[in-house]
Amino acid sequence: MTEVLRRYGPVLTTVILLAVAVWIVGLVVLPQVLMVDFSFRPMLPPAKIGGPEDVYTLKNYATLWTNEVHRAIFVKTIWASALVTAVTFAVCYPIAFYMAQVAPRRRLPMLVLMLVVPFWINELLRTFAWYIILAYSGPLNILLVALGIFTEPQRLSGGDVGVIVGMVYVYILFMVFPIYNALESLDRHQIEAARDLGAGWLRIHRRIAIPHAKPGIAVGCIMTFMLAAGSYAVPALLGGPQSRWFTEVIYNWFFEGGNWNQGAAYAFILLVLCVGFILLMMKLFRVGLTDIAK
Amino acid sequence: MTAAGVRRFLTRTYLVLFFGYLFVPLGIMGAAAFNTSRFPTVTPWTGFTLQWFPALFADQRLWQALGTSLIVAAGVIAVAVPLGLAGALLLNRLHSRARTFLYAVMVSPLLTPGVIVGISTLVFWRQWFGVSGGIFLTVVAQASFIAAYAMLLFLARLQRFDPSLEEAALDLGASHGQVFRRITLPYLMPSVLSSALLAFLQSFENYNTTLFVRGLETTLTIYIASKVRTGLTPAVNALSLILIGLTIIGAVVYEIMRRREAKA
């Protein structure tokens, strides 16, 4: 702290500290704390707030347990997000490995640009692209029928499959870059040495590349899972009434059910789920918080 | 074919498939903007037309939504860039536990689902200040996590900064204000620009957070989503195509700025 004061002087230090305080207290910590506090209170008409009925309760959390439809949607959101994460990893690992270890260096800037550009395109628009592709008379159905995989067009969107396919596409780049960054620091000679010593490609990946990429894989999985579990746009566009996502249930509590306390409880459950996933990844990959929050 | 040959063939095939997967969907969406079919599709192809572009420009609500998005983005830049700068300046001079803790709190919104950022902002402002959803809350909610992106950009640049420059200036009798204005800030200028651009792009495309704090306001992303669900015509594709074009320009400019900065 004394170093801050010495470097920036009293005036600037005050301004900096004030700005940081407004940011982390006013914009990050207090809203979160209040949301949690709110979720443990019953929904009351304004006149009764602060009155004898305004006590802490677990009622809003019990709803998820007693409401079978919501519970099923919650469980579905968990496994579907995990599936999206796993598929995304399988699709992304090779490209990340190729860019970090195989690609000629002069080709890298172009490759990175080709990945960055779709990354910047609005999530909603990338989802919309799949809305067209998955349509009943859309190109994918025509292709699959032409290839003889389907005998007649199938309903591809409006269900969980469409949502999962769309999510893999939309969140793929959040997986590529962390793994690429981690693998980039692996000395290319190390892989050559292993190959010269007779290691097969499977062993090279299992024993050298993947252990080295662990922090990147953890970050990629955390981001993808968090984005998938917290997604609203993809299920709203590609799903249907039969394939609701947990975020859609939360939205309904706020803007259709009109019970914000209940919605806040569900939102906190979603947050706990994501934090739980982060802890799980840290344990699985044996990485610390400093490796992740880089 | 030799083993190396097989490997090269497989690698090529994979690359073609991967980038095909990345770009073909966008191509199909773009192509649908030129199809005469009333519903956006490329199959069947009923004929080439440019009619959806004028249809788009005649849409008043679209222009309104665009205006709202631009106002919000300007607000987010004005809030998030200074906050990110202050955060980075502080973190750069701290060591030990305090730094790790502050850093974790600052980046935590990036690891939080966007809907929760929106919900917590909405609940907090209504409970404490009686403020309900609208442009103001949208700016506040978006800035709370976009400031973290700005902070990361500033911090990356500050770590390459030679602190003896500031020290020398202080030794030579410059005031703290002068050092900041004449040395620190000019050095950070490229990051001010790139973080402003990043903030703009992030704000402009935001959907999940905005959905909860928008009140009765409609940003462009919200408008597109409502169009897809009700009243979908290829005009939405025409709009998407234009936005993708603009995004590509923005992304390329941002990448060039970032690379130039990394070299400097």
Structural commentary:
The complex is a heterodimer of chains A (about 290) and B (about 260). Chain A has helices spanning about 1-40, 60-65, 70-100, 110-120, 125-135, 140-145, 160-185, 190-195, 200-230, 235-240, 245-255, 260-285, 290. Chain A is mainly alpha-helical and about 290 residues long. In chain A, helix 1 packs across helix 12. Chain A has a single domain (about 60-290), classed as MetI-like fold. Chain A starts with a helix and ends with a helix. The relative contact order of chain A is 0.11. Chain A contains 13 helices and no strands. The radius of gyration of chain A is 24 Å and the shape is globular. Chain B is mostly helical. Chain B has a single domain (about 30-265), classed as MetI-like fold, CATH 1.10.3720.10. Chain B has eleven helices and no strands. Chain B has helices at about 5-30, 50-55, 60-95, 95-105, 115-130, 135-160, 165-170, 175-205, 210-215, 220-230, 235-264. In chain B, helix 5 packs across helix 6 (about 135-160). The longest helix of chain B has about 35 residues, at about 60-95. Chain B is globular. At the A-B interface, helix 1, helix 3, helix 4, helix 5 and helix 9 of A face helix 1, helix 3, helix 4, helix 5 and helix 6 of B.
